């Protein structure tokens, strides 16, 4: 009788230990998941969204959901001595109609800042692969320094119109830009090409 109780207690203790180990493994898996990909694309993965900084070989892992903002994700990069930050306003994600079942092509503006005074704005082209749960950068296009993007309008075919405010020639870069500008680019799975107005 005593031996049976000891055996029963032993089995319960082993069961508790196994449950604790399984729970611990689940917690570890959760902590290594990308918060950004989970929030933006509902992907449970440990893969990271990495952006190559234009005109450099620096890589930036987009790893932080900005809790001070309702619609920003960001990351920091280091390239030799240069350090900087990339900020993405994910409310401006624009999906291409050329996506397929397993892949989603999308465009999104991002800002790059470094130790200098500039805040360089780009539009990036990316492809999200649902099978391997990765995002690959295809292209980027420079929009301007310290501009404010008002809207992105995709015609559903091959043209993206970007409306933004830039600094006028009379303005200092420390002022809020006021000059309305519009840029039109052709888009495809291969990237961007500026539309030349003749």
What can you tell me about this protein's structure?
- It comes from Aquimarina atlantica.
- This is Lipoprotein.
- The chain has 198 residues and is an alpha+beta fold.
- The chain has one domain (48-194).
- The chain contains two helices and 13 strands.
- Strands 3, 4, 5, 6, 7, 8 and 9 form a seven-stranded antiparallel β-sheet that branches. Strands 10-11-12-13 form a four-stranded antiparallel β-sheet, with no helix packed on it. The protein has a two-stranded antiparallel sheet with strand order 1-2.
- Strand 7 (103-113) and strand 8 (119-129) form a beta hairpin.
- It is globular, with a radius of gyration of 23 Å.
- It starts with a helix and ends with a strand.
- The model is unreliable at 17-22 and 24-30 (pLDDT under 50).
Average pLDDT figure: 82
Query: Unreliable runs, pLDDT <50, ≥5 residues?
Result: 17-22, 24-30
Q: Give the CA-CA distance, first to last residue.
A: 97 Å
Computed Rg:
23 Å
Structural class assignment: alpha+beta
Largest sheet: 7 strands, antiparallel
Content of β-strand: over 45%
Order of helices and strands: HHEEEEEEEEEEEEE
Determine the oligomeric state from the structure: single chain
Report helical residue fraction.
Answer: 10-25%
Counting H and I runs of at least 4 residues, what is the number of helices? 2
Task: Give the total of beta strands.
Answer: 13
Number of structurally distinct domains = 1
Query: What gross morphology would you assign?
Result: globular
Organism: Aquimarina atlantica
Protein name: Lipoprotein
